Every structure is written in structure tokens, then in C-alpha cells.
Amino acid sequence: MSSTVGQTEAGYLSVADCLAISPFARFLNIQPRIDADCVVLKLCFAEHHIGNPMIRALHGGIVASLCELSASTLLAFQTRATSMPRTLSHNISYLRSTIAADCYAQASVERIGRRTATLSARAWQEDVENPVAISRLTFRTKGVYDVSGEPAD
To answer: What is the Cβ-side half-sphere exposure of residue 150, based on CA atoms within 13 angstroms?
Structure first.
């Protein structure tokens, strides 16, 4: 994987392009970064992310959206897609309550096929070893590759 976040080669989507396409990602103020050759998305905390004001926890939909953006961005970047993949299903397990702080998400590819791809994502706040949520996502991949119709190496 490239070590440059905003690099675009031959019209393919870069990580920065993937996030710039989404108005929701801009609204959430999600920032990409490279950690040990993997893409990590950072949700910069804002007051409008609070879902439960009594305990000041992030809204579950915000965490789920962060996981989904992490997975779709990774898939588009790794497959050299020319458009964002469509989400077919998203299952999330909330493991612990969040706090009013930045949240991070990282996705990994389980399998990329000709028509669908399966990815998993995990979100955490203070410690990567203590995730606040884990997700399993399925995307439609048919029609998002450049010319060959095959996943990139």
C-alpha cells in the first residue's frame, strides 16, 4: 500500500479522494493517516457527535459510519476503484461505551471477489487493543474497478 495519503495514480481514487467525495465524511471531520502501512481514519471529536448527553458518549451511528467509511475507503484504494463501492450489508457489534474523545477506525480485507467483497473494521478510542466496536461489511464490487474487472494486486 502506498505511504502517501493523497496520491492519485492514473485516475484511481486516493484515500483523500474517497473521503472528499463524501459530504458526510466532511461533516464528521474524518482525517486519514497511515499507520504501519495501513490506513487509519480518525474521527476528530465534536459536540454534535454526542448521542447520550448524560454520559457524554458518541452516538452509535457515528461509530458505525466511521467503520463503514474506513472499510469502503480501504476497498476503493486497494482495488484501484474509479468510484466508491456500494454497501450491501453492515453488521456492527458495540463492545463498550465510548467517551467524548477522538475515535479511530481501521479496516481489513477478508475477501475480494468478482461481485462482492467482505471486509471487517474495528473502532477504538484510547487503546487499539480495546475496541469500542467491530464491524463486518459486504460491498458490491462489480462495476467499480477500472478496466480489467479484476482486483488489484
So the answer is: 3
- The 10s digit of each residue's pLDDT in 35-74 is 666 889 999 999 999 998 999 999 999 999 999 999 999 9
User: What is the Cα–Cα distance from 40 to 70, expressed in whole angstroms?
Assistant: 7
Q: Do the strands 86-94 and 131-140 form a parallel or antiparallel pair, or are they unpaired?
A: antiparallel
**Closest listed residue to residue 69, CA positions, set 139, 4, 146, 150:** 139
Which residue type is seen at 71? A
Compute the distance between CA of residue 122 and CA of residue 126 in angstroms, rounded to an integer: 13
34: nearest Cα among 64, 4, 13, 63: 4
- Return d(Cα 22, Cα 28) in angstroms, integer: 10
Span between the terminal Cα atoms of the chain, in Å: 10
Distance of CA 80 to the CA centre of its chain: 16
Q: How big is the chain by its Cα radius of gyration, in Å?
A: 15
Phi, psi of 112 (to 5 degrees): -120, 120
CB atoms under 10 Å from CB of 106, counted, come to: 20
pTM value is 0.84
pLDDT tens for each residue of 95-129? 999 999 999 999 999 999 989 999 999 999 999 99
